[in-house]
Amino acid sequence: MKVFAILGSIALALALIVIVFGNSFFGFVPNKNPQSLFIVQKTDSLAQVQKNLRASGYLTTKDTLFTIAEIAGGLFSVAPGGYMLQKDMAPWQLVMKLRHPDYAWVTIPPGKRKEEVGEILQTNLGWNPQQKSEWDGLSTTPAGDPIEGQLYPDTYLLPTRASATDVANRIIAHFNDVFAPYLPQFTDQNIRWTTGLKIASIIQREAAGPDDMPLIAGILWNRLEKGMPLEIDATVIYARGNVGQGWWAPLSAGQTSTIDSPYNTYEHKGLPPTPICSPSLPAIQAVLNPADTQCLYYLHDRQRQIHCAVTYQEHLQNISTYLN
To answer: Considering the entire predicted model, what is its pTM?
Structure first.
């Protein structure tokens, strides 16, 4: 008897939909209007989505989406993202279309290397292994510059069906827009922008926060001007890669001398061949506006407070005071 009761309820619900909406809901609509992008923010509720659909002219039937949700037991929801819609779609067509976004929100945090960005994209865009492999194989921009460092950290609305190359080009285009106002400043200071991006990437990985960045920038410039090895763990970690403990796991004993790579700034003077991650705007600004300091060394204590030293003896004393 319970089975018949359930089937009867389903039939009644379907009949109710037909009676309430009739041809206005289920009628075939040819969809001759051009498509346009409808955006659902991460914080939008179903009520807000419905309101926005009406305001944009996609939906006119009162409480259509709510009624669908109630009949389906609240199972209907709209994922954040972008949807290519047409204003002559019937409500049922909207419901079907709003189940699968054409664009997905993707947030890239500061300090991620290219492979990490690829992992984020694979998760958010639903890439298969072949698409992820295509991403990992990318190395240079259409202009011939390294991709590393130009995958600007921000939140993007990216097409779910785009190729890895197209996604990279979209992100790099945004980097170019953000970075362009700073190019004259690099030129005025006689700094190649690629050099500035390398330093900014090191600052990003070394700083505990934006407040540290100008001081670290000043120390890096001091070392470079004196011809000292930079001796930055983060560049060696970049060369080592992910060995099962994450991309940025601390170095183990002896790795600063055993990892043979141009990114090993303990063994090679100067900057690494490319940036080691994508820096934030504060890191880029720190390169152009370093702190005026005589320090050549720095460390972070266990509370992530930075301490710098002018001489190596002072640095050893800081190690004894703040770390041992």
So the answer is: 0.85
- Nearby residues of 91 by Cβ (< 8 Å), 6 or more positions away: 21, 24, 25, 59, 61, 64, 65
Q: How many other β-carbons are positioned within 10 Å of the β-carbon of residue 182? A: 17
| DSSP-based three-state secondary structure for 188 | helix
Query: Domain ranges in the chain?
Result: 2-100, 104-179, 189-322
Cβ contacts of 287 within 8 Å, gap of 6 or more: 191, 196, 199, 200, 203, 217
DSSP class of residue 182? G
- For 94-145, the pLDDT digits (tens) are 888 888 899 999 999 999 999 999 999 999 999 999 999 999 999 999 889 9
H/E element, 83: strand 81-85
Is residue 113 a contact partner of residue 238, using CB atoms and an 8 Å limit?
yes
Token pair, residue 188, equals 């005025």
Q: How far apart are CA 303 and CA 21, in angstroms?
A: 62
- Helix (H) or strand (E) run with residue 306 in it: strand 306-309
Beta bridge partners, 156, equal 106
